[in-house]
């Protein structure tokens, strides 16, 4: 296979009723001049949803094809071994384990919950669970995040609130600030509120159980399907309210902080004011620009990466040299 290098991909766009125009106006995504766009899937290998390399010798190659050709070089041996495991349902093997997307919420998203891996494996067809984390890239005044339930809300109280149309009353909510990171383990009730621009890293799953949709109807005047029974089966009623995470500074590296370190992914934030090297440590690294602009020395495109731009650094690339244009903040994630 052609030697691997830092990879940029063509985004895949989703047009949902809660989308807007900021993927184009603020993140410079090629969404055209009309229509509302809710999500830009930046790095994905999930069935027919495939990221395609945008430039360099591998242009036109799908992410899944890269894994088939040399999973260890792309992912790192430990991750490659994990996705080959026979403990996974057959349809979930040999897939890139994470999904990176950008979301523009011009309206509130539905209140929803995702299953964990064990619960997801029981679906037809089986899917991964969905643990995720959000980085707030922009927040209009009054924007809210709904994350977790009010303290003391158990399954009986929650079911009663949903049945009587009082779902919002039992949700934990807060007004986030730009730069906040919110960790949403599988089983956590959540919703992204109107006015937020979010970078999300998640397991490569598209399984969502919708609990409440704010009384909305579709273009035909029909409400969207709710999944109350499935939701009650997977909600973690012990987890309680969720708040933004407290960054943990990386020892010996003044510009880096760990935001999330769970069994599904590790996510760090880098604040850059001068050129520096970011190591891969033998695992792929997903890079997303949260603010500012950067140049990556080994990027075959030669173009800057701006706010909202993303890159996949293969495990076989020992490190990348990143030069900020002025200053920049990055989100860096690995499995």
Automatic annotation (TrEMBL):
GO BP term (any one): carbohydrate metabolic process
InterPro entries: Carb_Metab_Reg_Kinase/Isom, Man6P_isomerase_Firm_short, MPI_cupin_dom, PMI_typeI_cat, RmlC-like_jellyroll, RmlC_Cupin_sf
Free-text remark on how the cofactor is bound: Binds 1 zinc ion per subunit.
Name the record gives this protein: Phosphohexomutase
Cofactor: Zn(2+)
Gene3D superfamilies: Jelly Rolls
Domain Mannose-6-phosphate isomerase cupin positions: 258-331
